[in-house]
Amino acid sequence: MSYDLIVIGSGPGGYVCAIRAAQLGLKTAVVEKTALGGTCLNIGCIPSKALLHASELFEEAGHSFAKMGIGVSAPKLDLKTMLQFKQDAIDGNVKGVDFLFKKNKIETHYGFGRIAAPGKVEVKAADGKTTMLESKSIVIATGSDVARLRGIDIDEKRIVSSTGALSLPEVPKHLLVIGAGVIGLELGSVWRRLGAKVTVVEFLDGILPGMDGEVRKQSQRLLEKQGITFKLSSKVTGVDSSGKTLKATIEPAKGEGKAEIIEADIVLVSTGRVPYTDGLGLKELGVKMDERGRIVTDHYYATSVPGIWAIGDVITGPMLAHKAEDEGVAVAEMLVGQAGHVNYDVIPAVVYTMPEIASVGKSEEDLKAAGVAYNVGKFPFTANGRAKANQQTDGFVKVIADAKTDRVLGVHIVGSDAGNMIAEAAIVMEFGGAAEDIARTCHAHPTLPEAVKEAAMAVAKRAIHM
Ligand code: FAD
Ligand code: NAI
């Protein structure tokens, strides 16, 4: 079988790349070893958001409904049904990709892909049968896997990665989370809302490294108020699983001071993800990798071997579905001679806790380190009419603009709908817009995005409702 393009991996990078390539007239095939949609649809973005949604409503039914005059008896958790709700969300999305592949005449080969030589992909199916496919171009979109911690063996039952934490058959009494990054906070929130005590151990002295400092501090305070306990500047050096409860040894990150034992019934290891290239045959082909196991590409996603490209979690950059998708589109367009492009300065990041935490562009810390002069405009949701009406006033919007040109350099939002609101900031930044541009754009009232407008007005110290 011969193609113009074979994409290995059908996550958001791979499946979007295949669809765009097919739209552009390339005869395209996808090789997938498990299920269409990759990490994102099957064990990542989609199931985690389904559980975040359901658990948030569960908590609201218990806490907020009565305040609004909605009388319901105390909500009862039917975890089996909630997990089925999550599974239905996965299935619906996976079916959607299958439909789009058929619509675009993309051929799917289920099995493990190995690049036997440039232009040749061997597919080994589950029954051991191998098929050799040929193609002018190959795009590697094999994604990432859970980063392991030495001495802590993930069994996906009691010591789990995000994958196990998305399918726990019972609410843990005590969930110990290692790593206060995105996964730790999102899945920690899910299980706390459903009744678990949650302790998060973080190596650094704050949560969500890399985000704006003020956002990190306020988010930590809000999550603590909800009942999550953080043990910062600490590391888990081992988990004893011989008894009925797990016994985790926690030590100060710097290694000096007393160790303590924390008992938990589930430990979630969420200390990052690593690129996944096992069995692809890259070493034999001479594909260049960096010191962190990522495939090295140039600006056009070309690897060091002609005819082989790579995108998504398996290359450098944030491990985010939308970044992978945009790279998928860009590489497909470049393959037909168009000018595909991804602007890495404007990739939003969202943490889907309640309130949500969203960010695009530079933080104050980034700009200080780069010696760039900037102005900040901030607006709290306590002063936004819609947030007040909804009684969801936690958080703020922060707009950072260049001191000389007023160009928006970064926007950071903590707020109930931050993930949707950050899109406006990304568009303004993509067009090189100024804070004044947002400030002079009419925003509907009463809406939460009015807080973005007010924060932009606050850059010039002229917010109205503050
Ligand atoms: P993947 O989605 O990892 O897909 C790679 C695919 O390649 C897989 O299907 C795999 O089976 C297949 N594959 C690998 N090797 C082979 C081979 N040799 N042969 C055949 N097939 C192969 N990102 C967000 O932007 N928003 C979120 O809300 C979000 N939530 C997340 C929640 C969790 C719990 C996790 C773990 C991740 C989350 N992410 C989120 C990150 C997101 O899932 C990844 O950034 C994204 O899936 C990367 O896409 P990709 O196409 O590079 O790879
Ligand atoms: P992460 O990189 O976001 O966070 C890992 C955290 O663990 C960091 O705070 C780090 O300092 C800490 N850590 C590392 N080693 C440690 C140790 N030994 N002891 C204690 N703490 C330690 O990684 P996470 O949360 O596992 O997520 C992986 C990837 O998945 C992220 O890169 C993220 O981009 C993606 N993702 C995105 C989501 C979203 O967009 N909403 C949701 C979930 C995941």
TrEMBL record:
The keyword NAD applies. Binds 1 FAD per subunit. Pfam families: Pyr_redox_2, Pyr_redox_dim. NAD(+) binds at G179, A180, G181, V182, I183, G184, L185, E186, E202, G272. Its cofactor is FAD. It catalyses: N(6)-[(R)-dihydrolipoyl]-L-lysyl-[protein] + NAD(+) = N(6)-[(R)-lipoyl]-L-lysyl-[protein] + NADH + H(+). GO terms for molecular function: dihydrolipoyl dehydrogenase (NADH) activity; flavin adenine dinucleotide binding. Its EC number is 1.8.1.4. The active site is at H445 (proton acceptor). PROSITE patterns: PYRIDINE_REDOX_1. Gene3D superfamilies: 3.30.390.30, FAD/NAD(P)-binding domain (3.50.50.60). Residues 3-328 form the FAD/NAD(P)-binding domain. Keywords: Disulfide bond, FAD, Flavoprotein, NAD, Nucleotide-binding, Oxidoreductase, Redox-active center. GO terms for biological process: 2-oxoglutarate metabolic process; cellular respiration. InterPro entries: Class-I_Pyr_Nuc-Dis_Oxidored, FAD/NAD-bd_sf, FAD/NAD-binding_dom, FAD/NAD-linked_Rdtase_dimer_sf, Lipoamide_DH, Pyr_nuc-diS_OxRdtase, Pyr_nucl-diS_OxRdtase_dimer, Pyr_OxRdtase_I_AS. Belongs to the class-I pyridine nucleotide-disulfide oxidoreductase family. The active site is a redox-active disulfide bond. This is Dihydrolipoyl dehydrogenase. It comes from Undibacter mobilis.
